[in-house]
Design goal:
This protein is an alpha+beta fold and 232 residues long. It has five helices and four strands. The longest helix has 23 residues.
Length: 232
């Protein structure tokens, strides 16, 4: 009798241990531990025009300036967010290509259009293909567009979350609002360069003070103030 009771207790103990081990074992997770953060997708929306130049000179080929003016008018370049002027691949280090780019940028400035170099950082949306040969300069007109993420995102199950990770909808509304109110969506990919902080300005002032380079005091008028006579 005692053997049977001991045998039963052994079986019960084994079952309890198996259940405890199964409860403590990691459950299969059908969702990644780090859910992708909802962010806006930034794309380029615009048109590009490759311009041909006469070989060995800074002058555009015949009829190219007429094409450029028509292109700038059709794309409303004066109201565009970005107007890029870029050389063809393999000609970026060529002095002639740089002179052509500078001349074309000055011409755009005379038309009231601010031309700028094409960004070369990796990971930025491409503003269209460049010219096919070294005698081409490409003018790209357009803007960057922020496409908000699909919200709400309830793809992650809310029940039975044993991984204790964040919700798939976490931050979705903030990402949508940011994509709708940002002035230039390019700032979501590449931030603006920082200028000097106030601390740098104060440090320069202290340096001038220690070096004895104080600004001259403001000049005061030497004329005596006019007397105000009491009214009779």
């Amino acid at each position: 009798m005692q053997r049977r009771a001991c045998h039963r207790w052994t079986i019960v103990s084994g079952l309890m241990a198996a259940l405890l081990m199964a409860a403590c074992a990691p459950l299969p997770d059908n969702y990644p531990l780090r859910a992708p953060q909802p962010v806006a997708q930034v794309i380029w929306s615009g048109e590009s025009l490759p311009l041909s130049f006469a070989p060995g000179t800074e002058r555009p080929a015949a009829g190219e300036m007429t094409r450029l003016l028509a292109f700038l008018k059709a794309t409303n370049a004066r109201r565009a967010a970005h107007v890029y002027v870029a050389t063809a691949p393999g000609a970026a280090d060529d002095s002639l290509a740089r002179r052509r780019t500078a001349a074309l940028t000055r011409y755009l400035t005379q038309l009231g259009i601010a031309g700028e170099p094409r960004p070369s950082e990796s990971g930025l949306p491409t503003p269209g293909p460049l010219g096919a040969n070294a005698d081409m300069i490409t003018v790209s007109v357009g803007r960057y567009v922020a496409i908000p993420p699909r919200c709400p995102d309830w793809s992650k199950p809310e029940l039975g979350d044993f991984t204790n990770t964040r919700s798939s909808n976490f931050g979705c509304a903030s990402a949508v609002n940011l994509s709708l109110m940002v002035a230039d969506p390019l700032d979501l990919v590449r931030g603006q360069p920082l200028a000097d902080a106030d601390g740098a300005r104060m440090a320069r002032a202290i340096g001038r003070y220690r070096a004895g380079k104080l600004p001259a005091p403001p000049k005061t008028s030497q004329t005596a103030p006019s007397a105000v006579l009491p009214s009779k």
